[in-house]
């Protein structure tokens, strides 16, 4: 097996320099700045990788569609030229509402070339969440298909006066002055486009957060975020020449753009994109058939795979698989070791957020894994645990303190604003630090351990309890598939720990089972922290990016308003 790109974490962390990363990228010709699309596509298309497959789409009907770096250059240039033809200006916002089809990826990279700001939306959104995002994001152009246009967009148009054009991917004719045929425009556009001067600080991407804790926020990112995409691709995803990479996330969630589009292309590898939703056997067969080397997915998918009897390694040839990584929610320790059994490699957890634009804390192939830990900060990132309650931030210098996970400002991919929410943006910073909103601790070896979102922390009988700790314990019980834990107000103790539990097939949601689980948790965690109440539930409510919506469980439990449900996964 090839040597990892990162062999000595401590050494690299000490020597790391963002200038050096910048020097490994090409930059626009003639010193005209730094543009994501140039780094991801054009520079490879004019070099050795011209005929290499950049994106391989698994379409719904089993067929495979390939785009080489050369093809991508031509297609994205066409898209940039057609934006020019539509008289768009730099900085204007282009949105997409599409499944994981080639047009989405071409529109994303073409917009970046033109220097429009691109914002991909989940295609499963209904009209209202689409409206909220298009209007909040001042969308000028929306790329979509005829069916979504008819069903979801047409009825919104009179409320979206600044939406100038809708580009339809599957219509051979324009429908009217606004709804135009993208196919026709692409045919007519030139395949040559010179990327204009791009300041590394020019805006590039707009991403809405998952809405786990409330109304989704629009986080703005700039072109130099590509430095993080490149560096994390190299050191965390460990991209090596000739690699086949698969990120299962949809570009509607930041992971699907930073790692489903940009990072693998910037690193010159081949990226697999599956148009279909989760399907365990289809996924295993893609891993086998495409000889995937590096696979990036989420805890929700891993938990679903763990529920099945199959040991994939025994049924499929997964000998090419070198790395399996996970992001989005805490990864319970059992999942890490399951990976070892199921794939022959442990599942490597990493932590980041829409706001950070790229991976910040990670487990690395060459570093010992402590199951349940998020790993250590990316070289170039200074992460710490702090008390942020006072006027001045206090950084803990001793291990084992629980507190806010904070990141030192100044790394390239940190968001530059929440759209139309200046105050909220300002509140995220204290002194030189960005406050993530998550709580964590660092152990004596420098490993970071997630405790919970500040909003989800339970205060019970003078203890601070993170839901993750309780959920992980419950999941060690053989009857439990998934669990979500909330704090329920209880005057005598502050809050009471309440768990919602999904049972494995064949186990009955009886009182005995409830007592058994409470007893099991008490024995493991102690009575102060173990849940006092357990409800059995068929499935947990989740966001479309697969995160457990504890705030919804809590609202339902307390009979409070359910809040924004635009990102709730249906079905
Ligand atoms: P919103 O900000 O709208 O409430 P969100 O925070 O879920 O939604 P994202 O930016 O998609 O939106 O998710 C980032 C958050 O996901 C992190 O702040 C953290 O709470 C959680 N997260 C991501 N990766 C991990 C991980 N490896 N371990 C624990 N939590 C994680
Ligand atoms: Mg968040």
List keywords for this structure.
2 domains; GMP Synthetase, Chain A, domain 3; six-stranded antiparallel sheet; globular; binds adenosine-5'-triphosphate; 571 residues; alpha/beta; Rossmann fold; nine-stranded mixed sheet; binds magnesium ion; 24% strand
What features would you describe in this structure?
With 571 residues, this protein is an alpha/beta fold. Helix 4 crosses helix 5 (102-114). The protein has 2 domains: 9-435, 3-Layer(aba) Sandwich (Rossmann fold); 458-558, GMP Synthetase, Chain A, domain 3. The structure holds adenosine-5'-triphosphate and magnesium ion. Adenosine-5'-triphosphate binds next to strand 14, strand 22 and strand 23.
Summarize the structure.
With 571 residues, the chain is of the alpha/beta class. It folds into 2 domains: 9-435, Rossmann fold, CATH 3.40.50.12780; 458-558, 2-Layer Sandwich (GMP Synthetase, Chain A, domain 3). 30% of the residues lie in helices and 24% in strands.
